[in-house]
Amino acid sequence: MKRNADATTVPAFRQRRPAQLAEGELKHLERILASFVEGSTSSDRLPARYWNMRISQLDEDYDLVPSQSHRVASLQRKLALLDQALDTAADAQDGQQSRRVAA
Questions:
Q1: pTM
Q2: How far apart are CA 81 and CA 38, in angstroms?
Q3: DSSP letters of 25-89?
Q4: 63, 14 contact by CB (below 8 A)
Q5: Which pLDDT score, from 0 to 100, does residue 23 have?
Q6: pLDDT of residue 34
Q7: How much is the pLDDT for 76?
């Protein structure tokens, strides 16, 4: 017996996970970014594009409530600012090293 597909049914591969399941991911990513701010600017971390991908996946994979969507947007802004600050710090450090070598 064949079932007729309902036009409003979303295929299983397209269904989003419930918002409650996103909470753990959101808290984890918020802790990670907080540790970046508190920690050093070392380059041994995973690149910002990895964390940006993880943050973006939350919006794609979960049926977020508005407050969670705001947290995702906030994480994306913080990551962009942090990445910019780390790049600036790395550039400044490179400049100091090249001045020492030239001296």
A1: 0.68
A2: 14
A3: HHHHHHHHHHHHHHS---TTSPPHHHHHHHHHHHHHHB---HHHHHHHHHHHHHHHHHHHHHHHH
A4: no
A5: 95
A6: 86
A7: 94
Start-to-end Cα distance in the chain: 83
Contact (Cβ atoms closer than 8 angstroms) between residue 57 and residue 12: no
Bridge-partner residues for 62, per DSSP? 17
Total residues found in the chain within this entry? 103
Taking the C-alpha atoms of residue 87 and residue 47, their distance in angstroms, rounded to an integer, is 11
Give mean pLDDT in consecutive 10-residue pieces for the chain, a chain of 103 residues.
53 78 94 74 71 92 95 93 80 66 55
Sign, CA dihedral 8-9-15-21, equals positive
User: In whole angstroms, what is the distance from residue 20 CA to residue 29 CA?
Assistant: 15
Q: How far apart are CA 61 and CA 76, in angstroms?
A: 16
